[in-house]
Amino acid sequence: METQSRWVVIFARIARAVGVAAMFGVFILMMYYGGTRQTVPSTARWYELDDHGRTAFLTGAEVLNMVLLGAIGALLFILGIALDPQSSQRVWRRH
Description:
Elements: H1 6-36, E1 47-51, E2 54-58, H2 60-83, H3 86-92
Antiparallel strand pairs: 1-2
Helix pairs in contact: 1-2
């Protein structure tokens, strides 16, 4: 932490944590949509979500929710790593 501002390191850690939480959110949203949405296509629901053998059909907005949440999570995680690259080195260099 000597070379970087303390606040940058804190922000990087928060960004990584929120990014990981968002990625878990995508998984939870997929499980929720797979269990609660109809299993036959209709005019509004024609995006197929295959959840280990159970097929559900989603609207465009539901698919967009999952894609945006995953993209934001990935970007926040990458931003957290980019702002504090020494953090991953510190974890792996503990003896």
